[in-house]
UniProtKB/TrEMBL annotation, chain A:
Its main location: membrane. The keyword Membrane applies. GO terms for biological process: phospholipid translocation. It comes from Scleropages formosus (Asian bonytongue). This is Cell cycle control protein. GO terms for cellular component: endoplasmic reticulum; Golgi apparatus; plasma membrane.
TrEMBL record, chain B:
SUPFAM superfamilies: Calcium ATPase, transduction domain A, Calcium ATPase, transmembrane domain M, HAD-like, Metal cation-transporting ATPase, ATP-binding domain N. It catalyses: a beta-D-glucosyl-(1<->1')-N-acylsphing-4-enine(out) + ATP + H2O = a beta-D-glucosyl-(1<->1')-N-acylsphing-4-enine(in) + ADP + phosphate + H(+); ATP + H2O + phospholipidSide 1 = ADP + phosphate + phospholipidSide 2. Residues 606-657, 1325-1347 are annotated as: Disordered. One of its GO terms (cellular component) is phospholipid-translocating ATPase complex. GO terms for biological process: phospholipid translocation. Keywords: ATP-binding, Endoplasmic reticulum, Magnesium, Membrane, Metal-binding, Nucleotide-binding, Translocase, Transmembrane, Transmembrane helix. InterPro entries: ATPase_P-typ_cyto_dom_N (IPR023299), ATPase_P-typ_P_site (IPR018303), ATPase_P-typ_TM_dom_sf (IPR023298), ATPase_P-typ_transduc_dom_A_sf (IPR008250), HAD-like_sf (IPR036412), HAD_sf (IPR023214), P-type_ATPase_IV (IPR006539), P-type_ATPase_N (IPR032631). It is a multi-pass membrane protein. Its EC number is 7.6.2.1. This is Phospholipid-transporting ATPase. It comes from Scleropages formosus. GO terms for molecular function: ATP binding; ATP hydrolysis activity; glycosylceramide flippase activity; magnesium ion binding. The keyword Secreted does not apply. NCBIfam families: ATPase-Plipid (TIGR01652), ATPase_P-type (TIGR01494).
Length: 335, 1347
């Protein structure tokens, strides 16, 4: 009978839809109900005063340390050197002294300039490692592969410097150390020479030509040291690490030998410069810099001052907060 | 069958487009074509029944999904940028790398879409393969097939409890009356049974159904989504036309109930069924915040443009400064130098590529993810879960969560939204005499108490038994009637007595049971002694009015009687005077006795409830003997009841279950039952009523004039079984009935009637002012001739197709004239739980609440007072006029008065801005506004909207009564467009759909009135009180979270991109990036993307408890305080400042050294990571373990990825590739020193400002946050202090529901007066008194035009 069936079925239907276990009730968990235990900081003067004070004092301490360190670093910059500029070097503590060349208004960071291929070319012979198209237009010279290709390599800095100490009117050559001026990773991992053919690097570069602006091919960059040739030439590696800013230094040599190892003795020096690199076309200037270093690198007054200023500011802020706290944090509100 | 016939059939089927195809659908049976190929099928052009709701197929997924994704502006932008990378002249990055972010975004979105689509596919597959029975000519029987095989023109059989597979025209039913009951819960959520009838003329006498012989052509409407509209006709071979309508249509998705089997022909299938046409997916709205975001994105575009322009110009100027071509300016690949101007032009696009991240592309994806998370938390809120219906809040619109936090105006429906829409019969007036039903009122009051007590005691425990226990303990005699109703409940849900279900409306004891008024009972009993007279005399001259009144209550409705407990009737059936039809009906029901028995056994499951049941029964008996002197027949019946019970064959007298479309109807039927007029059965052409003394009358129903909102009444035309008169019973709104009363030719009679009418009208006004819903009951006796005339017109109207509705209404209006007033009823619609508290909280939150209702003025005003929309001290203006001039002058005059009062309070509002701790309650009066629907339309006609708005803005609340659905939406639109505020509409019925769709947020209440409102809504809740938490807590959270996240996202991108921009000044504006592009992409994609998303989903600035305790905190969201135009620019400035710091501190540190590009960039990248994350850390207000995990995880991820990347990427991004740079930097102490100081300096200003804000605590948000740190008790105490400080005049919320206390006291006074002074006129005086006390205070009526 229909009604009969209906009643029973209705019951079944209803139990089915809302029976035990299938309830639609949300889980009563802290996560679902957004009641997770939480730290609810209310930033107020009372809490931050000690924080400001501590940070301020710490910063002042760091600032003083930085400032002192930085002052201990001596820098001698010779601007726009030409020929044989005479130098009167004050006594330097701490060595070794680093010799940098500086270029200003030189935008090594221009996009498109910084293209280079044929750096680590997978160890095959050079004809096999065709230069990347991003080297264009310094990719081929009359259909012969340029090695190394690209505009950075093409525009490599090629002035040379020799330093003499004037001892009793005689020039005494200061030995300059050109080893290890490039990054270890650049020399050992990033850049590779093509495998030598018959013990000759020149043969390995067979089938390539030198970059247009270069006077010498890449395998003949340092005639004094055969190991310092090809892509692993230290000056080349330094040049290839493109500078971040238009006024930059690049490490030329370190003075690490003999009596000069612990700093240049005070005295008169002269610097012989072989002037090859034109700067007129970009209105740039060249400079030569002697500097020693510390744990924080080269001389940098800024960081120390910044820490001192910020530290003092924090201390001042803590004083201000104290006033604010005293004025606005009435006891009855301090619940 | 001859070959000619076949040919003609084929020709018939061949016609591609049957005539009239554009207007109607023509279809014929498929059976003659059963074995023919598809192209010969006559109905092949109609959709078949397999559904496909998926958007994609396996093959079309990729192209279609991409196509859809590229409809988004953001994605197009990103792809254009990526394409720009491939243009050789401008390329900044590796072109392939630039594609990665957009690909990741596209793939993520595609995976999400694919997963959603797959779920739809599975659901479709399951539906398509459901079994059903289709008639096959070969088998000469119904064969089992799948839903997807059903085609238009097939004959389908459905059996009881089966879901209907398509829209079927009902041609056969196993029910001898030719009806089929269906439950439409799947479609509209209405759980009451609805009757469908077979098409006229198809009732086979022997109950068999032979589809082969069906040769008619069916013409019906084209498919439409209107569930309530369907009409058409059958063209029979003999050229006879038979009309049919929605009452003949079985809808797909409904369930067949109560009917063995039904069959019919499919008219709509698959996607053309009404169910599918109504099934629209989730809605997509654009939130206010998102619109703001879009404008700010445009600002970012402008910023980007300016920055690129600077870059282009800079490049040009830079090139010009050189006297000659410098070695570092590269020629193009052909070794040519292009002119500086052209290079500058190209550089513009290079800059676009470089700085593209400025446009926060991932912002849109992040927002979407955040909203998914927010919706997860909203739907999982246990406070928004309704135990009774086992339903959570539904979020139907997925992307407007944050709008919940910005609502300024709420437009609420009254019935079913503020009130429960569970009607309780409270009072009635018969023939001008009021019966106040004191017993009933007392009982209801007691009931309320016990229920609330119950809920305290047993929250999780099974409800029914505990309630029984409780009653037993209390032993309140007034409860016993509800007891019996409850046992009947048990019968219905016997298998789950212990789970709480309230799916069927009107089943709670409150609604189903009415304690009769003693006085009225006495009168009816007296009348019963006259029954013999009444039976003899053809027309009983008004003396039988009481009889008629209750008969009208019982008959004049569309209530379906669904379960009957019958042996009792059989006992009495011997005394029946009416025909065999009822007897046969009863016979068929007779076998139900075993249900009765099973029901009897239920209480045994719980011995306690069993015993309590017995107690109650005994008490009941006693009670009856108390009043026995007054009602002998009642005593008899209860005596017979007992004797029957002893025989063990009989059920409870309440074993009938009424299922009504409107709760009022059910309430009236139960009221009639309480007086012994029990509706026993309803068939389409017959209703059966048992009279108090046991006689069963069966009325032949000649016609039913259904309710509609223009007539505001319904009628049934019946033939009286005894007098054989044609009687029309009408019930409807008082305004609709009073106008139609007849004038009697007899002067005395006329006077008497007028007196009755005026008295009844007074009672009606009284009811309305007590917040009761009023209905007038009237009758009319029609002469046979008049009826025949009318019937023929009616028939004609029924068979027309075109404007049938209008014609039918016309005929109805024609009949409903010259009525005789019988009486009036007052039905209470109880307020939902916590409505006053919710409204008070919403108002405290600065939200204006408007109530728009179709109810009459007095009812609405009363509910408004009881739900605290108006306070007793409020000045309430009533706008009620018909004339335009008057309307305007009243508005002006009211405005003037309001302005006079509000002028001093201007200074108050100023103060509240200055001092947060100032007491903020104005001293002047607050205003309320009541406006009538007619006046409202006048306002719209006369373009007085702005004046109305001005007035409304000064009012605390506005109440619009007697408004139509269209007016509701017009009001919402007016406020929304003119005041430019966020609006929310909440309603539960079909009449609220317009309003719900018009508002910024539509909320549907899934309650008694079906699902139309829910279908149209953005959020669906079960109770009005849920609105409080939804808005105050979730709204605040969602808005503050998302707003802060968006602001942060803008900041993050601008800050990071500016680093690159500043670098352009040092690289000749050549578009160089000092950070490796992989790390740059990772930076946005992995290192800094998850913390803001987590922040947007999880951050909790203020706890839920505090937000609920201090609703005024909501105002921050309303005023968009987290995301203003200023906020955007301040954060932009901060971003600029931070980027300057992050660039220039490393710059000055490394200036004049041999630093290379990426070594220079690495500390900047690291510093900006710290700054960006710590910036977020300052903004995060609550740190859970998850927050810590994401923050620390992001930093760790950065270092791990950067270290690994630097270690393996020997050869990428030449020449200054990132190889070993991170490692080198991390070995350098300066790196750490730079990182520390830069981060500190960058964040110092923001930090200091936040500290100052926290210390001075000017904003309530900060104060509230401080409260959160306290223990619960201390916080509650502080919240109390806070509130008392701010609003000293606010009275604490009453624990007793105000409506109950009010109406009870009213009841009391009324009752007392009516006891002391039996004179009706005196009674009226007391009414006036109550009205006076009621309207005391500042309530003023500026103008009241009578109807």
């Amino acid at each position: 009978h229909p009604r009969d069936v209906r009643t029973c079925e209705t019951n079944k239907h209803r139990t089915g839809s809302s029976g035990e276990g299938t309830t639609n009730r949300p889980d009563n968990t802290a996560f679902d109900q957004q009641r997770l235990p939480a730290w609810q900081p209310v930033l107020s003067a009372g809490i931050v005063i000690p924080g400001f004070l501590l940070v301020g004092l710490a910063f002042i301490g760091i600032g003083v340390a930085l400032f002192v360190t930085s002052r201990s670093i001596q820098v001698l910059e010779v601007s726009a050197p030409k020929g044989f500029p005479p130098l009167a070097v004050p006594p330097t503590r701490g060595g070794p002294v680093f010799l940098y060349y500086g270029l200003s208004n030189y935008f090594q960071n221009v996009r498109g300039y910084g293209c280079l291929a044929m750096t680590t070319s997978s160890g095959g012979t050079c004809p096999r490692c065709s230069p990347s198209s991003s080297c264009a237009p310094y990719q081929y010279d009359q259909n012969t592969t340029i090695a190394p290709c690209g505009s950075v390599a093409n525009s490599m800095f090629n002035d040379t410097f020799t330093l003499y100490q004037l001892v009793n009117a005689t020039r005494k050559t200061v030995p300059l150390d050109g080893k290890g001026i490039a990054w270890w990773t650049d020399y050992n991992i990033k850049f590779r020479n093509p495998p030598e053919v018959d013990g000759s690097l020149a043969a390995a570069f067979n089938g390539t030509v030198k970059p247009v602006n270069w006077p010498k091919p890449v395998y003949d960059l340092d005639p004094t040291n055969p190991a310092n040739n090809g892509f692993l030439n230290q000056d080349f590696l330094v040049w290839m690490r493109t500078a971040a800013l238009p006024d930059f230094w690049k490490l030329y040599r370190r003075i690490t030998e003999g009596e000069y190892a612990s700093g240049l003795p005070a005295g008169n020096y002269t610097l012989e410069i072989q002037y090859n690199y034109p700067v007129a076309n970009f209105a740039g200037r060249k400079s030569v810099i002697f500097s020693n270093t510390s744990w924080m690198g080269g001389k940098n007054q800024f960081l120390g001052i910044a820490y001192l200023v910020t530290g003092s500011l924090c201390v001042v802020m803590s004083a201000v907060m104290l006033i604010v706290y005293a004025k606005f944090n009435s006891p009855d509100e301090d619940f | 069958m001859g070959s000619l016939e076949v040919w003609s059939l084929i020709k018939q089927g061949w016609r591609r487009k049957p005539e009239q195809e554009d207007k109607v659908r023509r279809l014929i049976s498929n059976l003659p074509y059963e074995d023919l190929r598809r192209k010969y099928q006559p109905n092949r052009q109609y959709a078949n029944n397999s559904i496909k709701t998926t958007k994609y197929t396996v093959w079309s997924f990729i192209p279609m999904n991409l196509f859809e994704q590229f409809h988004r502006f953001a994605n197009v932008y990103f792809v254009v940028i990526a394409m720009l990378n491939f243009v050789p002249i401008v390329n900044a990055f590796e072109p392939g790398v630039a594609l990665i972010p957009i690909c990741v975004i596209l793939i993520l979105t595609a995976i999400k879409d694919a997963w959603e689509d797959f779920r739809r596919y599975q659901a479709d597959k399951q539906l398509n393969n459901m079994p059903c029975s289709i008639y096959s000519r070969k088998e000469k029987d119904f064969v089992s097939k799948c839903w997807k095989d059903v085609r238009v023109g097939d004959f389908v059989k459905v059996v009881c409890n089966e879901v209907i597979p398509a829209d079927i025209l009902l041609l056969h039913s196993s029910d001898p009356n030719g009806v089929c009951h269906i439950e439409t819960a799947n479609l509209d959520g209405e759980t009451n049974l609805k009757q469908r009838q077979i098409v006229r003329g198809f009732a086979a006498p022997d109950g068999s159904f032979q589809p082969e012989y069906f040769s008619s052509i069916i013409y019906c409407e084209k498919p439409s989504n209107n569930l309530n509209r369907f009409k058409g006709y059958l063209d029979k071979p003999d050229k006879k036309k038979i009309g049919f309508g929605k009452e003949n249509l079985l809808l797909r998705g409904c369930t067949v109930r109560n009917t063995d089997e039904a069959a019919g022909i499919v008219v709509y299938a698959g996607h053309e069924t009404k169910a599918m046409l109504n099934n629209k997916g989730p809605r997509y709205k654009r939130s206010k915040l998102e619109r703001k975001v879009n404008t700010d994105v445009l600002f970012c575009v402008a910023l980007l443009f300016i920055m690129c322009l600077i870059g282009a110009l800079g490049y040009f100027i830079w090139l010009e400064t050189f006297p000659d071509i410098p070695p570092f300016v590269p020629p193009d690949s052909n070794n040519n130098y292009i002119s500086p101007a052209l290079s500058g032009f190209y550089m513009f696009f290079t800059m676009v590529i470089l700085l593209q991240v400025l446009i926060p592309i991932s912002l849109y994806v992040s927002i979407e993810l955040i909203k998914v998370g927010q919706i997860f938390f909203i739907t999982n809120d246990i406070d928004l879960y309704d135990e009774e219906t086992d339903s959570r809040i539904q979020c139907r619109a997925l992307n407007i969560t944050e709008d919940l936090g910005q609502i300024k105006y709420i437009f609420s429906d009254k019935t079913g939204t503020l009130t429960e829409n569970k009607m309780v019969f409270r009072r009635c007036s018969v023939m001008g005499i009021e019966y106040c039903h004191r017993e009933n009122a007392l009982r209801l009051g007691a009931q309320c108490e016990t229920i609330s007590d119950d809920e305290d005691i047993v929250f999780q425990k099974p409800k029914v038994p505990s309630r029984l226990q409780y009653r037993q303990k209390k032993g309140i005699s007034s409860l016993r009637r509800s007891q019996s109703a409850r046992t009947h409940m048990g019968a219905r849900y016997q298998s789950e007595v212990f789970t709480i279900t309230n799916e069927v409306a009107f089943s709670s004891p409150l609604e189903t049971d009415v304690a009769p008024d003693r006085r009225l009972l006495r009168v009816t009993c007296d009348e019963k002694t006259q029954i013999q007279e009444w039976c003899r005399v053809s027309h009983c001259n008004g003396s039988a009015s009481f009889m008629d009144f209750f008969l009208a209550l019982a008959i004049c409705n569309t209530v379906v009687v669904s379960t009957a407990m019958l042996p009792r009737q059989r006992v009495h059936s011997s005394t029946l005077k009416t025909g065999g039809r009822l007897q046969s009906l009863l016979k068929r029901m007779g076998s139900l006795s075993h249900i009765v028995n099973s029901f009897q056994s239920i209480p045994e499951k719980s011995s306690k409830s069993r015993s309590s049941l017995k107690d109650v029964k005994e008490e009941e008996a006693e009670d009856y003997s108390d009043s026995g002197s007054n009602n002998p027949s009642r005593r008899n019946s209860s005596a017979s009841h007992h004797s029957e019970e002893e025989r063990g064959t009989v059920s409870d007298p309440n074993g009938l279950c009424y299922e009504a479309e409107s709760p009022d109807e059910a309430a009236l039927v139960y009221a009639a039952k309480a007086y012994g007029f029990t509706l026993l059965a309803r068939a389409p052409d017959r209703v059966t009523v048992r009279l108090p003394q046991g006689a069963v009358l069966s009325f032949e129903v000649l016609d039913t004039l259904a309710f509609d909102s223009t007539r505001k009444r319904m009628s049934v035309v019946v033939r009286h079984p005894i007098t054989r008169e044609v009687v029309i019973y009408t019930k409807g709104a008082d305004s609709a009935i009073m106008e139609l009363l007849d004038c009697h030719e007899n002067q005395a009679e006329e006077n008497k009637r007028k007196k009755i009418a005026s008295k009844t009208q007074r009672h009606l006004d009284l009811y309305a002012s007590a917040g009761l819903r009023t209905l007038c009951i009237a009758k009319k006796v029609l002469s046979e001739q008049a009826y025949d005339d009318w019937a023929s017109i009616r028939q004609e109207a029924e068979s027309t197709i075109d404007n049938r509705e209008e014609l039918l209404m016309e005929t109805a209006v024609h009949l409903e004239t010259n009525l005789t007033l019988l009486g009036a009823t007052g039905i209470e619609d109880r307020l939902q739980d916590d409505v006053p508290a919710t409204i008070a909280a919403l108002r405290e939150a600065g939200i204006q609440v408007w109530v728009l209702t179709g109810d009459k003025n007095e009812t609405a005003v009363n509910i408004a007072y009881s739900c605290r929309l108006f306070n007793q001290g409020d000045m309430v203006f009533t706008l009620n006029t018909d004339s335009r001039e008057q309307c305007e002058s009243i508005l002006d005059c009211t405005l003037g008065e309001v302005r006079r009062y509000t002028a001093p309070s201007q200074s108050w509002s100023f103060q509240s801005i200055v001092g947060a701790v100032m007491p903020t309650e104005s001293t002047g009066p607050t205003f309320g506004l009541v406006i009538e629907g007619r006046t409202l339309s006048m306002v719209f006609e006369a373009h007085l909207q702005m004046k109305l708005l001005e007035l409304a803005r000064h009012c605390r609340s506005v109440l619009c009564c007697r408004v139509t659905p269209l007016q509701k939406s017009a009001v919402v639109k007016l406020v929304r467009n003119k005041l430019k505020v966020m609006t929310l509409s909440i309603g539960d019925g079909a009449n609220d759909v317009n309003m719900i769709q018009t508002a910024d947020i539509g909320i549907g209440i899934s309650g008694q009135e079906g699902m139309q409102a829910v279908m149209a809504s953005d959020f669906a809740i079960t109770h009005f009180k849920h609105l409080k938490k939804l808005l105050l807590v979730h709204g605040h959270w969602c808005y503050s979270r998302l707003a802060k996240m968006v602001i942060y996202f803008f900041y993050k991108n601008v800050m990071y991109v500016n680093l690159l921009f500043w670098y352009q000044f040092y690289c000749g504006f050549s578009g160089t990036a000092m950070i490796d592009y992989w790390l740059m992409i990772f930076f946005n994609l992995f290192f800094t993307s998850t913390p803001p998303i987590m922040f947007g989903i999880m951050d909790r600035d203020i706890s839920a408890e505090t937000l609920l305790g201090l609703p005024e905190l909501y105002k921050t969201g309303q005023n968009s305080e987290f995301y203003k135009r200023a906020t955007f620019w301040i954060v932009m400035l901060d971003a600029f400042y931070q980027s300057l710091v992050c660039f220039f501190i490393p710059y000055w540190t490394y200036q004049g050294s041999d630093i290379d590009i990426f070594t220079f960039g690495t500390p900047m990248n690291t510093v900006s990571l710290f700054t960006i994350l710590l910036h977020l850390a300052i903004e995060i207000k609550s740190w859970t373990a998850i927050h810590w995990g994401f923050m620390v995880g992001s930093v760790l991820l950065y270092f791990i990825v950067a270290l690994i990347f630097s270690a393996i990427c020997i050869n990428c991004n030449p020449p200054s590739n990132p190889y070993w740079i991170m490692e080198n930097q991390m070995a350098d102490p300066v790196f750490y020193l730079v990182c520390i100081i830069t981060t500190v300096v960058a964040l110092l200003p923001r930090y200091i400002i936040r500290v100052l804000q926290g210390t001075l605590a000017l904003s309530p948000l900060v104060q509230a946050r401080k409260l959160d740190r306290l223990s619960t008790e201390a916080r509650d105490q502080q919240i109390k202090n806070w509130k008392s400080q701010r609003s000293p005049s606010e009275v604490p919320t009453n624990l007793v529901s105000p409506v109950d206390s009010f109406s009870n006291s009213f009841e009391q006074s009324f009752y007392n007066s009516s006891l002391e002074r039996e004179m009706p006129d005196m009674q009226w005086d007391s009414n006036e008194e109550t009205q006076n006390t009621f309207s005391k205070g500042h309530r003023r009526s500026i103008s009241t035009m009578t109807v």
